[in-house]
């Protein structure tokens, strides 16, 4: 499975500008490479404009879900479309979308762990359901959003559901870059899955972001890593048969003693 990750900068509060940038990127990258799947970062339509989200979302004329479906269909490519702020009644969710190559929404997930350090609980509503696996080309995968990375139980539950790849879409700050890197490697090693992350670059409201998007194999080796500051595209081929091989070599899942973990 050949993938491309768009480590992008975002234009705060301007969904139209960000859609244009994503459209251009998809057109370019699919011309240059024969790809199966694309990955976008967290909250890429608006960035972290939490206070202004109700106004921005109400003013936005275009339906981004349909925009993504159209892109996926036109380029016949799966898109793990990062996450977007979505308004439903009075609630706003930080929702991840996965589009399949036929242009259908394959899966959505609302971020369950809201970030106290960013006052997310003041502006957003946490997801009510845990993350589930979805299937693309017959392979099971999962997606989590940024702060979720700190909760090993969530990724473990995806691995137990059969995920071979877990995508992490993020706006992770530079000040905690060390955690970002170590936690991703740990999650890959302990669950023997590929971790594919897409973090933004740039700054917003004085916060610098860490970039450093990564592709990590189920042994914990970093196959690709983005820089801290630059917009970049990471292109990698995931050899999914590695998951089974590594799970045979170190049989963590059959050594588990879940009845003792109370
Ligand atoms: O956990 C962290 O340090 C960063 C989390 C975050 O920025 C997010 O979830 O958007």
From TrEMBL:
InterPro entries: C-N_Hydrolase, C-N_Hydrolase_sf, UPF0012_CS. The keyword Transmembrane does not apply. It holds the Pfam family CN_hydrolase. The keyword Ribosomal protein does not apply. GO terms for molecular function: hydrolase activity. PROSITE patterns: CN_HYDROLASE, UPF0012. It comes from the Bacteria. SUPFAM superfamilies: Carbon-nitrogen hydrolase. Residues 1-240 form the CN hydrolase domain. Keywords: Hydrolase. Belongs to the carbon-nitrogen hydrolase superfamily. NIT1/NIT2 family. This is Putative amidohydrolase. It comes from Halalkalibacter nanhaiisediminis.
């Amino acid at each position: 499975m050949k993938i491309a990750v768009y480590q992008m900068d975002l234009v705060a509060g301007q969904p139209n500008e960000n859609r244009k940038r994503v459209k251009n990127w998809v057109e370019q990258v699919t011309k240059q490479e024969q790809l199966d799947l694309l990955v976008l970062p967290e909250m890429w339509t608006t960035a972290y404009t939490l206070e202004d989200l109700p106004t921005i979302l109400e003013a936005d004329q275009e339906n981004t879900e349909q925009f993504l479906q159209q892109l996926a269909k036109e380029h016949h490519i799966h898109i793990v479309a990062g996450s977007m702020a979505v308004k439903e009644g009075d609630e706003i969710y930080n929702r991840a979308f996965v589009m399949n190559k036929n242009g259908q929404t394959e899966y959505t997930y609302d971020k369950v762990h809201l970030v106290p350090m960013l006052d997310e609980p003041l502006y957003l509503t946490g997801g009510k359901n845990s993350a589930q696996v979805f299937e693309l080309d017959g392979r099971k995968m999962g997606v989590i959003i940024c702060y979720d990375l700190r909760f090993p139980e969530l990724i473990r539950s995806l691995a137990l559901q059969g995920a071979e790849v877990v995508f992490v879409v993020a706006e992770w700050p530079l000040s905690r870059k060390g955690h970002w890197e170590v936690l991703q490697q740990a999650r890959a090693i302990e669950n023997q899955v590929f971790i594919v992350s897409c973090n933004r670059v740039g700054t917003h409201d004085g916060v610098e972001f860490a970039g450093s998007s990564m592709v990590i194999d189920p042994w914990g080796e970093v196959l690709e890593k983005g820089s801290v500051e630059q917009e970049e595209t990471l292109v990698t081929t995931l050899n999914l048969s590695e998951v089974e091989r590594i799970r045979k070599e170190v049989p963590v899942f059959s050594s588990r003693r879940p009845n003792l973990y109370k």
